[in-house]
Amino acid sequence: MKFFERFIVQRQPGQVTVLALVFLAIILAGSVALIDRSAIHTKKLRQTARKEQTLALAEAGLNAALVRINSSTQYSSEQFALGEGEVLVTVTNIDNTTKKITVKGAIPSIASPREERVIETFMKLDRPVDDAPFHYAVQVGNGGLKMENNTTVVGSVYSNGSIIGDPGARITGDALVAEDLEVLPLLEQTLQDQTITAGKIAAQEDWAQQFVLPSGGLVYKAQIEWRKIVAPSTAVVGIATNNNGQPSALLVSKSYSYFNVPDNFTWFDVEFDSPVYLQAGVPYWLVINAGSPSQYWYWELKATVGSAYNGGNAYSGTEWNNGNMTDSGKDLAFKIFQGSENMLYNVDVGTERGQENFGNAHGPRIERTTVANNVYATVFYNGTIGEDAYVSTATFCTVGDDIFYAVSETCNQAGQSTGGQPPPELPEQLAFSISSSTIDTWKVAAQTGGVYEGDYIVEQNETEWLGPLEITGDLELENGSTLIMQDTIYVHGDLEFGTNCSLQLDSTYGPFSGALVVDGKIEVENNCTFGSLGEGGYVVLASTDTSLDVVNNPSIKVSNNAETVIFYAPFGSILLNNNVQVQSAAAFQIRMKNGAVLEYEMGLAGAKITSGPAVAWTLDKGTYKIIK
Fold this sequence. Notes:
By secondary structure, the chain is mostly beta strands.
């Protein structure tokens, strides 16, 4: 026992030492692990900080690129030092309105990075844009569309007035004629206490009554109270302009033989073939040209003994337009009516494609018209329908299938007639896609670039860049000159094109269209070309002129082919001369001369017209991403 006790006593100090060493080793190992873990964490913190720094460098480079791109369209790439690192910017042009921006931020340098981040985003060209879709090849106001011999619209037509065709006139798409404007007396003088003669003696061969409308409007017809005596010469009744207090030029007229007029006095409707727009506060004349004087065959009209109407008196003389008419001190009994009775007349509508027919006709009255597909009308007279007729009245016609709503005994149809149903709804009066306020906005946008006083001339064979700009006189492009529109242009006077000139939109327009607004006339001829240096934009030539003398003095006159251009005259008239080809036209009144073709382009339906004082590149939201 003592042996063991001695052994134990002798071994105790070494055992304590071993145990202490063991514990010390454990503590040291834990400390080393803790220190190593702390070092790793510190390293990760430094790495995270560098990543944040490089990301901040990349985003700073992106902001710098945005500023530089808006300062110079030629900016493409750049490498520069920033803070503790460097930035590399690369710009890739996708198209005229889109750029891809790739930015690398690196610490300490792009060449030898310890840390780098790469971001990518897209930029877009941001311009003020007006949606102005042109859904129809032709849109026309209450003045209507006149199609002369062998004219063609390749597309559809929407008209607030009548569409009248000569032989060979054709619309390949739909033809839509809006409901009538209610015909109401706009002005009348009904006092009648005297009878006067016209065409009896030379001094009173012709008569002209001056009048002034209280408000502007579309005049569809006039009324006079008259009768015939036996069989006088043909009389012409019309509305003429005023020149120094005398009737001057006829705006619209109608001829009447003696058998058209009754023997007894009556309020007689003088219905003009097409309505005419008359301005408020402007003197006009109601003219009766009675033909050659005859002692026994003449006309009689009702009038007043003295002046009863404050807007002007009745004048008489041998020739109504010779400037020598004499004031009679009387007033004719007359009425002026505002409104219109619309119709589609003598136009082939639609086309046959394989086994199907395309092209429908809509309108209050459709006469002497061949329609490939369906007709929706109040009255259909003396025409041919390829498919169905949805009409209230159908007479002297041929129908390829059924007649709905009306029962007709004078039409030949392959199908059946179903009466007793409500008549079809007619197209409504349709406003133009470009409003007056939009045109005013364009004018204001042009003014931001400054004002040029007087006429601006782009000289022969020269190229100039303009816009935004306001020009107080005319704008003239001389022979062989080129005008590149950088932004909206507003011209107070006329726009004149010389031979072989060119009008182009700058490439910064991209897919957008641009407007050139003119208060005066526009005349296009002599092989002028139009287009865009960008992708798919249209030149919009807009005139605010109000002339409705579409034959002699139109607001816009087009005498040569013109593609990628939209002609727009919402208050005036457009004349498309013989054999020209254009893509879109909209005006209060349009006339297509012999052989003219208007061929619609589908891109016009999505046209976006841009105007504004500046062009800006902005970040395209949703395209930002970190790629490294």
